[in-house]
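Weekly modeling sync, notes
Attendees: S.R. (lead), two postdocs, one rotation student

Agenda item 3: backlog of single-chain predictions. S.R. asked that every request posted to the team notebook include the full sequence so nobody has to chase files. The rotation student volunteered to paste the first one in as an example of the format we agreed on. Action items at the bottom.

Example entry:
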Amino acid sequence: SLVAARDTVACIAEAEHLEAMLSANEFEPDDATRAALRTARAIATAKPAGRSAPDASASATQSDDTSSLAPELIGRETEFRALLGHWELTREGKGSAVLLSGVAGLGKSRLLADLHSRLRASRAKAILIRANPGDRAVGGGFLAAISEVVSQRPGARAISSDSASVLVALAPALASVFPQARPDAATGEDAVRRRVGALLDLLRAISDESALAFLIDDLHWIDPESRRVLDAVAARLDGGRVFMVLASRPPLDLLGGFAALPRFELARFDLQRIAEFVARLGELPTDEWAMELPAQLLAATQGIPLTLIEALQRLIETGAVTLEGHRWSSAAPGRIAETLRQGMVLEARVRSLTPGAREVLLVLSTVGRPISLAQMRRGMERDAAPNEETEENDPRLLELEHRGFVQRSGGELQVAHDEIAAATVASAAAAERGAAHRAAAVALLAGPESDATLRLAVEHAMHAGDNPMLRKIALRWVRRRRDHGDGESAPVLIRDFTPGAPADVQQKLVRAVPLLERPAR
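Predicted structure, as returned to the notebook:
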């Protein structure tokens, strides 16, 4: 390939041609395409031999063997066809909502991503949104995020003035989309009812001319306020042109009305599926170790696809097996059983990262939501002016991407799966977790300010035990509320802002607010 040959001119030419074609056809590149474009540009900016940074082309080649263990959809063809069938009904005006359920690692996210890609390839309207663990504590935060994304779509401005007012109150950034709207002042049950109506109005407006597929991943991370509104919206989609797919882990009894939706439950892989998965990646020889490998993988992974991928990656990284030219081989078959017997393959892979990459992964895992490269840099206290090309090809990020731990999308960084984040946090020492909470707070404060980001930042600062930062965030919160016309006293605002903090901590935060800014107006 051009990358392997390090043909700089051809790499740049092909990258620019592809970007121009995507732009001309209004196609949005997927994550794999973005990664390929970054690799091509890395070749052009790489230093000559002797440089300290990793070889981009070598990393890309290695990624073919270690981070790309995700062949085309296997074992989920039935569910995929059924979802496409629901989509065809939606195009005929028979919209609906369905629930995709299964324990962590069974492929819910992959199935949604493949459905999204298929629909986008056919030029259909499709929106894929993922909830994040870091957003659970922010009431209405996910609903605000949905509103911001959907309101950017053509047709959104056709909603009623009442709906626009509700959306602006929910997500103040939408004032630029609906400049004539005044924030809705409804509270309590009336606010819930109006939010349901506004979101339905918005979805119907953008699906007026053609059907819309609205895909929501990781429903189990959604805050209760947002979940209640989405529950009511999902129940009112029959007969429209909106197809909603929600993916969640059990227990489903915690999901309220969503549990009553038509459901597709993903099953674990059996021995046949595992053998098929391995064979799709590469041809197995007829050696005894190869015959035993699927059964060993089944025992080690319990049929969970994510754990299967991690186990195979661990086998490759330890040299127990090799995958080259789409053929499996092993120079040390005895190491296969030994490696798989160690268990906790995901934690082992995290520990095998270089210290710098592991530090970045811990910070991203602690933040629990997508952040920009600049935010990550600030969070890790690297304040020197960044060089765009150097930052794009940060060796720590390249390592994490090439090994499948982190994804970049739309200029933002995110841990590839929340099970990876959980394993990363679990394997960190207490002092490392404290430092990561502080870095997470700094990173969030370096991004666009909102009620949600301030609430998340103060939670991280409390976990870090960083009192100066707590005082700084509390003051920003009070001033933000004042800017929005909130006349409550500082003690009331602080109690609302830090409901889980001890009373003495809240009192100290109040004292951080200047006297003139404390009283109610």
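Discussion: group reviewed the output briefly. The chain has a mean pLDDT of 83.
Action items: rotation student to repeat for the remaining queue; S.R. to check formatting next week.
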